[in-house]
C-alpha cells in the first residue's frame, strides 16, 4: 500500500546513528526525483562545498518501486563536485528494491565516519562498521568481503566506491555514488 508520506531514514556517519522520519509531500512531488529534490532542499547546504561532511547524499525511490515489474530506479541526489550545485544520478539494479524491502522511500546520509566504514541497513537494523582493511580494494573484492560480513537476504544491494573513490577523485565519487548501502566513507 502506498503511504500518504515518505518514510525516510536519516543517517549520520559521524555518530553511527539514524532515525526514521516521515516527510510530507507525497501529493506534491513526483517520483524519486521529486522526493530527492525535496530532501536536498531540506538537508542540503547550498553555501557549503560539495565535500563538506554535512552535505547529504540522498538515495530515493519512486512510489511504484516494487509494485510493478521494471519499476526499480534509484535516484541519487548530491551536490556535484563538477559544478558545486545540485545534481542527480539514476541507476537500475537492486538498490531501489533493497530500499523498498527495507520499508524506506529514501535514505539521507550525512557526516563522515572517523575511519573507512560501511553502512548496513534493513527494515529493522542499522549498523555503521569500520572497515579500514577494505580501503583501496577494487569493487569486486570489496563486494565479496561485504557479502560475507553481512550474510542474509537476497533482497540486498551493495554500492561501493572502489580505489578511485578511496583517493577522493571527484569523478569517481559522483559517478559511482560515493556512498550508499553499504557506504565506505571518504577521508
How would you describe the overall organization of this protein?
This protein is α+β, with helices and mostly antiparallel strands and 187 residues long. It has one domain: 4-Layer Sandwich (Aldehyde Ferredoxin Oxidoreductase,  A, domain 1), CATH 3.60.9.10. Helices cover 22% and strands 25% of the residues. The protein has a six-stranded mixed sheet, with helices on both faces. A hairpin with a 4-residue loop joins strand 7 and strand 8. It starts with 5 loop residues before the first strand and ends in a 12-residue tail after the last helix. The C terminus is likely disordered.
Low-pLDDT runs of 5+ residues are: 173-187
- As for the CATH topology, it is Aldehyde Ferredoxin Oxidoreductase,  A, domain 1
Total strand segments: 8
Helix/strand-derived category reads alpha+beta
End-to-end separation? 40 Å
Strand content: 15-25%
Output the strand order for the largest sheet.
2-1-6-3-4-5
Number of domains as seen in the coordinates: 1
Radius of gyration from the alpha-carbon trace, in angstroms? 15 Å
CATH class: Alpha Beta
Tell me about the largest β-sheet: 6 strands, mixed
Short characterization:
The protein is of the alpha+beta class and 187 residues long. It has helices at residues 31-43, 95-101, 139-149, 162-166, 170-175; strands at 6-12, 17-23, 57-61, 74-79, 86-91, 106-110, 117-121, 126-130. Strands 2-1-6-3-4-5 form a six-stranded mixed sheet, with helices on both faces. The protein has a two-stranded antiparallel sheet with strand order 7-8.
Amino acid at each position: 500500500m502506498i503511504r500518504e508520506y515518505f518514510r525516510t531514514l536519516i543517517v549520520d556517519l559521524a555518530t553511527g546513528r539514524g532515525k526514521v522520519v516521515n516527510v510530507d509531500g507525497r501529493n506534491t512531488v513526483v517520483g524519486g526525483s521529486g522526493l530527492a529534490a525535496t530532501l536536498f532542499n531540506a538537508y542540503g547546504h547550498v553555501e557549503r562545498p560539495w565535500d563538506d561532511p554535512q552535505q547529504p547524499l540522498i538515495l530515493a525511490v519512486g512510489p511504484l518501486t516494487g509494485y510493478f515489474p521494471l519499476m526499480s530506479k534509484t535516484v541519487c541526489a548530491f551536490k556535484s563536485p563538477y559544478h558545486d550545485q545540485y545534481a542527480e544520478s539514476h541507476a537500475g539494479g537492486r538498490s531501489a528494491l533493497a530500499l523498498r524491502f527495507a520499508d524506506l522511500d529514501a535514505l539521507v546520509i550525512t557526516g563522515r565516519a572517523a575511519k573507512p566504514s560501511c553502512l548496513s541497513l534493513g527494515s529493522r537494523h542499522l549498523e555503521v562498521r569500520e572497515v579500514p582493511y577494505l580501503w583501496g580494494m577494487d569493487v569486486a573484492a570489496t563486494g565479496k568481503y561485504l557479502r560475507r560480513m553481512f550474510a542474509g537476504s537476497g533482497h540486498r544491494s551493495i554500492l561501493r566506491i572502489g580505489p578511485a573513490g578511496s583517493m577522493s577523485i571527484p569523478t569517481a565519487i559522483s559517478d559511482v555514488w560515493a556512498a550508499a548501502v553499504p557506504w565506505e566513507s571518504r577521508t
